[in-house]
Amino acid sequence: MTSAERNTRTSQSREASLLPCVLGIDGGGTKTACVVLARSGATLASAQSHASNYHAVGADIAQANVRLAIERAIAAARQNCDGKLAIEGIGLGLAGIGSREDVAVVRGWVAEYIAERVGDCPWQFHDDDRERVYIDHDCAIALTGGILNADDRIAVAGIAAIAGTGSIVFGRNDNGSTARVGGWGYLLGDEGSGYDLARRGLQAALQASDGRGAPTRLLAEFSEHFQARSPRDLAIAVYRQNLPVRDIAALATIVDRVAADGDPVARNIIEVGADELARAIGSCAGQLFAPTDTPEVVTIGGVWQSQAGFRERVRGALRSQFPGATLVWPRSSPAHGAALTVLCAIAQQAPTPQAREAQTL
What we know:
The protein has 15 helices and ten strands. By secondary structure, the protein is of the alpha/beta class. The strands form two sheets. Strands 3-2-1-4-5 form a five-stranded mixed sheet, with helices on both faces. The chain has a five-stranded mixed sheet with strand order 8-7-6-9-10, with helices on both faces. A hairpin with a 3-residue loop joins strand 1 and strand 2.
C-alpha cells in the first residue's frame, strides 16, 4: 500500500468515526439560540448569545452574535460527544429576513463559517447547497419547531401565532402555500402583543387620572412600579427613561395581573388584545385552509402565559371564525425548527437502498 493510499484510508476512517449533526439557529431582537441535533433528531447541545436582527443591531454585530451562539453550542456538543462532530447542514431563522438581499447577506456569513471552520469541526457541505443551508425568517422556523416532532421528517401544515414583545401570525398549508398576517411593528401593528397590552394599560391609567376613563388600579400599580408620586411623574418617567420596546412590553405582566384580580379596565385590555389576535389567526387560516379543515395553531410567546384568560378568550373568539382550528403549545423550539428543516432535506436527499447498491456497482 502506498503512502497516499494509507493517508486516504486514515482520512476516511477518521471521517467515519465522526458524529454527523446539523445546526439550528433562531435569531431575534433580544437573543440568538443555537441547537446541535444528531441525524436521529436527538439534541446534542444548545447555547445562546445576544440579538441578531441585523436590521436592528447592524450586520457586524448580528454576525458576531450568530457566530458566538454557534461556537458555544458546538463546544458544548463536543464535550458531550468526545469531540467527534461533523456538521452536515445549518438552518438559520432570523428576525428581519424578508428579501433575497437579506438571504444573500446571511449566506455570506455561512460561507465564512465554513471557510474558517467555526467551532473547529468539519463542515461537510458547500455554502451554496440550498438543501443543507436553509435560511428563512424566524416565523417559519417557529412554525416548524412548534408543529414537528423530532421523529418527523416531512413538512407539516399549521399556523404559528406569536405573541411576545410583538405579534405576528404565519401559516403554511399542505400545498406549501404560506400566509402572513400582522407583524407590522409596534408603531403600526403588533396587536395582542406584550407591547400593545402595556401601551393600552399605561394609556388607561393616565386617562383614568384625568377623568377621561374609568377608574382602574392600573394607575396605582404603574405609579408604584416607576416610583411616581403623581400621574405627571408617571408619564415623565416613561418618556425620560426612553425605555426600549422590550422593556415597555414587559409591563404587560402588570396589566395581566391586575386583570386577573378582576379590574374591569385591565380585563377589557386583555380581551381586546385577544380578540385582535384571534382575528389575525382567523384571517391567516382563511387564506390557507378550507372551513372544514382542522389546522393546529402553535401559540408562542410570553403573552400566551396570561393568568387573566387571554388564551381562553382567543380560543372562544377563534371558534366563531374558524371552528376547526385548535390551539397547541410548541413541541420544539424555533431553533429546533431550523435544524429539523435541514434534517428533513438531508433525509430527502439520501439515496434509496437500491440506489446505494447501484452506486457501488
